[in-house]
Amino acid sequence: MNKKTNSLFYKQMLTGKTVFMSFLIAAIFSSCSKNNEEITSEAQTNAFNADNVKKGQLNGQEITYERKNGMNFFQGDIVLTDKQLSEGNEVNKGGASYSRWPNGKIYYTIAGNMGSINVNKINSAISEYNNKTNTQWIYRTNQANYVEFIFGSSSGSDGWAHIGYQGGKQTISLDQYISVGSVIHEMGHTVGLYHEHTRKDRDQYVKILWNNIQNGQSYNFNIYNSGTDIGPFNINSVMMYWPTSYSKNGLPTITRADNSNFTYTRTGFTTGDINTINAMYP
Ligand SMILES: [Zn+2]
Prior knowledge:
- The protein contains seven helices and eleven strands.
- β1 and β2 form a beta hairpin.
- The protein starts with a helix and ends with a helix.
- It binds zinc ion (ZN).
- Zinc ion binds next to α6.
């Protein structure tokens, strides 16, 4: 059942075409568009099990997360460390300033089995960060604190990432058919961004259609009150969910607040995304 429901989610992810800013890069990626259409979706993680849904504290707020594969998944693709959760009842720990990368410098490595197509996507996404934001992604030599891009699945189009700066080694996981936009999205979590639809002010802009959400997944749509909303809500943010994310019936799980549908492509940064990251890393 989970495979079926997840496939809907993946299809939505694939609607985000990997249109990119530069013709050069677009040319490189035209070669993988065929593969995108041939995707066979496979759940990257264990089937949903209500027993795995846990309550915890994050930055002083009670949150719901799913424990699977030995990791704590929050809002679907954000991985919280046990340390973050254990410190979560202390408001001053694990908070916004704590989770920033020092001087905006993010050191990274790429797992040897990543494959050249994904390496190209990573390099394109890194160029976007390095050219447009105050964060600088730098290939690691011997730094103690860094993020490793790992290869998640050869058949999926999904990803996940730790949120913010952890200290030591942390991870971004990318499946084979993930889009460049979603690589930028996962890197956004590494920088410290949560999802746009969980902003405190989101109800002014979007409506959550709870009845269309898969059983047990509603918590992924909860407002995250401990976050800091920077700049105006932007429905086109690279950190937004798709209109039918976690849909159990193909109908929207998110519409605009006036009940109208929106289209979402996740091609890359909006100006608002860049401004937000630069406010976090002045
Ligand atoms: Zn995400």
